[in-house]
Design brief:
single chain, binds iron/sulfur cluster
């Protein structure tokens, strides 16, 4: 069985490079980056959230630290998640009618001007709440509040490239479901096209049978 841990190591390095500004030249050509991002979301889903976004990276790392420290970890039950997963879309719809939310501005400040974001009282308190909750729940902001994530997620549902599950090899252990930071039931589907998928590849990494692969939807499985 081939280990896919290297995927998470590469992802960690990529997130760290974006967070520390090592990939700054990519960001200053924002217009070119935005064009590529638009097409990449349509074709392959939301790599930005899983690999680039600093706030997503921080939430991932806090969850990782909390697990290492054996802090209690909560997963929103799927019965509740199936309704809660729409919050960011509802917030997006409300925001298009001019209803703004202070916590969304706080995240915006954090990504774009960390010092001011942290110094403003509302920004500081709300960020602290999100960061502390990220110790106990996977990516709370991404899952339920982020408007950018909502827009990209909606665009990504037509993607022809995504994670494909080989049902013949699958032993239905549900490790993919339990490790998905966006609480998606991977085992329930043959091709992940969920709008909340952030292409973190964690499901691929943990699958003990290597039956998840990132590929074109109709590409047949290789015979061995
Ligand atoms: S959902 Fe929002 S906060 Fe989360 S990684 Fe994506 S853009 Fe960043
Ligand atoms: S981790 Fe792999 S084997 Fe287990 S349920 Fe998911 S796809 Fe199937
Ligand atoms: S389905 Fe897989 S790639 Fe998508 S968010 Fe969940 S673990 Fe990450």
């Amino acid at each position: 069985m081939k280990s896919k841990k290297f995927l998470q190591i590469i992802r960690f390095i990529t997130q760290a490079c974006f967070l520390t500004g090592l990939f700054f030249p990519v960001i200053i050509h924002a217009d070119v980056a935005a064009k590529y991002m638009f097409w990449s979301v349509l074709l392959c889903g939301v790599f930005f959230c899983g690999w680039v976004c600093p706030f997503g990276a921080i939430q991932d790392w806090l969850a990782w630290i909390a697990r290492k420290l054996k802090c209690p970890h909560f997963r929103v039950p799927h019965k509740v998640q199936k309704y809660l997963q729409f919050t960011r879309y509802i917030l997006y719809a409300l925001s298009t009618f001019g209803i703004t939310f202070v916590f969304l501005n706080a995240r915006y400040n954090f990504n774009h001007d960390m010092v001011n974001g942290m110094l403003s009282v509302s920004g500081g308190i709300i960020l602290a709440v999100f960061l502390i909750s990220a110790l106990f729940i996977d990516r709370p902001f991404c899952n339920y509040f982020c408007l950018k994530g909502a827009v990209d997620g909606m665009m990504s549902i037509v993607r022809p490239f995504s994670i494909k599950r080989n049902n013949q090899k699958c032993i239905h252990c549900h490790l993919c479901d339990r490790n998905c930071p966006m609480n998606i039931l991977v085992e329930n589907t043959n091709f992940v096209r969920h709008p909340n998928c952030i292409n973190c590849m964690k499901c691929i990494t943990v699958c003990p049978k290597n039956c998840l692969t990132f590929k074109l939807m109709n590409l047949p499985e290789k015979k061995k």
